[in-house]
Amino acid sequence: INNNYSIYPNPASDFIEIKIPIILSESYQIKIYNTLGFIVEQTPSSVRKIDISNLPAGIYYLNFGNQFYRFVKI
User: Fold this and answer.
1) Between the N and C ends of the chain, which has fewer C-beta atoms within 10 Å?
2) What value, to the nearest 5°, has the Cα angle with vertex 34 and ends 29 and 18?
3) What angle do CA 1, 44, 22 make, to 5 degrees?
4) CA atoms of 44 and 24, how far apart (whole Å)
């Protein structure tokens, strides 16, 4: 795992915050997938705090560029 990237808190209930390198942040979309592979949220990478309160509890995967991170919504 690249230490330049992080998602917190994990597990989360209302919001997740994303730490991404500033120099890469302009060129990507942030996508959140459910365990079935469907995109359930999508936002520009300039957004650092994502509201996940509308998602049901479960495991999700955040995609940023070629990086994937697992997080748990409680």
Assistant:
1) N
2) 45
3) 55
4) 12
**pLDDT per residue as tens, the chain (74 positions):** 445 778 999 999 999 998 876 665 556 789 999 999 999 999 988 888 999 999 999 999 999 878 899 999 99
Q: Find the radius of gyration of the CA atoms of the chain.
A: 11
Angle 25-26-27 from CA coordinates, rounded to 5°: 100
- What sign has the CA pseudo-torsion 5, 40, 36, 57? positive
The answer to pTM > 0.70 is: yes
CA distance 23 to 69: 19
Alpha-carbon distance of 36 to 13, in angstroms, equals: 20
